[in-house]
UniProtKB/TrEMBL annotation:
Family statement: Belongs to the universal ribosomal protein uS3 family.
Protein name per Swiss-Prot or TrEMBL: ORF134 protein
Organism: Turritis glabra (Tower mustard)
Small ribosomal subunit protein uS3 C-terminal domain span: 41-117
InterPro entries linked to this entry: Ribosomal_S3_C_sf (IPR036419), Ribosomal_uS3_C (IPR001351), Ribosomal_uS3m_plant (IPR044954)
Amino acid sequence: MRSFLSNRTNTKTLIESVKIKSVYQSASPIAQDISFQLKNKRRSFHSIFAKIVKEIPKRVEGIRICFSGRLKDAAEKAQTKCYKHRKTSRNVFNQKIDYAPAEVSTRYGISGVKVWISYSQKKGGRAISETYEI
C-alpha cells in the first residue's frame, strides 16, 4: 500500500495504524456509523442516539447529534432534529470539542448528520481526549 501511494503521488508516504479503545470517543467514526445505519434503514434516529449514549466513555462530557433532511419517508419539507446528552457547549473556547459532519444519500434525497463531542477537563484546565487524527 505504501509503495502504491508513493509511486502514485511521487511523494514519500508514511502509513501508521492506530488502535482506538472505543469507537464512540471520536466524532468522525460516530458520524460514519450513523450515516451507515441510516442508509441501510436499520434504526430510527432516536434509537441510534440511545445506543450511542449507552456506549460513550466516561471521559466524554457531552454529545450532541443533529440530523437534517427529509427525515420521515417521503416528507415534503426537510426538518432538523437535534439530540443532546449531558453538557455540550459550542461557545466555550477552553474546552476540547470534536466535530464531524457526514452525508447520507437515501432515495428521498441527501440528509446530513453533525456530531459534536465535548471532553471532560482536568483540574489544570486542559481537556482530556484520546482522539487520533489520521
